[in-house]
Amino acid sequence: MPIIDLALWDLERLTGAREQGIMKALDYIKGNLESREGDRLKFEATHDRPDFFSAEGLARAIKGVLGIEAGAPRAEVKAGDVQLIYGERIEERPYALMAIVRGLRLDDEAIAQMIQLQEKLHDTYGRDRRKIAIGFYDLAKIKPPIYYKRVSADDEYVPLGLDRPVKVREMYELTDKGRKYAGLIKREAPPALVDSSGQIMVIIPVLGSECCKVTASTRDVLIDVTGQDPAYISKVMSVLVYSLLERSDAKVVELVKTSGGVVDISPRLLAVRRSDVSALLGVEVGEEEYADLLRRARYDVEGERVVVPPYRINVLSWIDVAEDVAILKGYNKLPREPPPMSTAGRRHRVEASSWGARRALLSLGFYEVMNYVLSPAQLLGAFGLGYAEVLNPASERLNAVRSSLLPGLLDMASRAKRKEVRMFEVGDVFDGETKRAVAFVLAKDGATLTDGLAVLRALCVRLGARCEASNHKAPWCIEGRCAKISGDLSGIIGEVKPEILERIGLLKPTVAAELYL
């Protein structure tokens, strides 16, 4: 989990609270105080609370716990005059959204917290800058409008940390960030933000420019977030904007005009019933106490609806709101009751059978493999099997839920460089319902159904199961060399068709079996 570095004196400045109150409030905040060295604190934040990735977000929560401020933070959000123009479509990062926070009071510690928030969001929600990239700029040093376009690797700018202009292609080698992130872009034509005077503000997502760096004298900060999903970008932008607002006197946010999308940092209304929260926590929460706890958790309450601040991107349902109520009420004040169970815990019979099958097959000279539950649809189709397709797969190879262990097991066997392959797998499959299956493959010169039946009988004996074989047909079996298993266990065993073996690259006679436990 992210470890956040903080200064106690900075938290005191942001909250107006004393050390004792701050330390007490941290006990009520989701996360853990990792360590303290003098005035420096190390706070372990949970991944679902990105608003705690810097001192500003923690200060906002501390003020709520201590009752210094209650309810959702207030901000004036309006359309600004600054415009972002898309010079061309950037395929790898098609969306760029911007906002301006005005009236900031910054110093070295505040800037360090901004950088920490930026990097923690890059590492977690940004997948190390692959999914999103974030930038901060001093608005006073920029001449609008701003252009989002590609630049040439031969163009020059002064990268952060350097004191002279260099070509973009030189930046890739001269800086740590260049060496680390240049592989994420088209190096010869990288995406960039360029103002109307022609100065390069940043090479996205690699490194910003010294020309518009935020310093202690900066009063108005321009924020940009680029990526592939405008809704996701808006969520990250909300975290950034509301963190900077904790250091703003004006509490003004201006949304930059752009044709690529609209930054949505508006609060959300969520239906939450007090009776449901009370039932979940196991204790009656009174109406006044309920409203007070929600406001101290920095929500607003409107009857049976809760106003969720935009930076709370982790709040997905009323359960998340109930968790905040429980945290602020105190878990020690909730009733402690043993679960209503009349029996002691023991291993489920399916798990016991699974371990029995593993031991039996290992003793017969087979070795175990483990494949993913998700499988290539093309592979399942080659065996004539039905399957559930994944509508939005993360990978083209993992686009179906496996309905059998055999395709993946045989695909794995085809990669084994041995004269004889003895391989098995135990795992779940889905063919309308979830089942636990055990499958084995025996591939060698001269392998026949008889060899497979010998293994099958030994497995059934070890499991104490009665198994019978009868003639059967299956789309992946050689006709007349296939059997259906019935009795205490059900399944199928047979010799795999040569055309299927050739297709997956397993060039040995192969017998395979799959049983449901």
TrEMBL record:
Superkingdom to which the source organism belongs: Archaea
Keywords in alphabetical order: Ligase
EC number of this enzyme: 6.1.1.20
Enzyme class: ligase
Descriptive protein name: Phenylalanine--tRNA ligase subunit beta
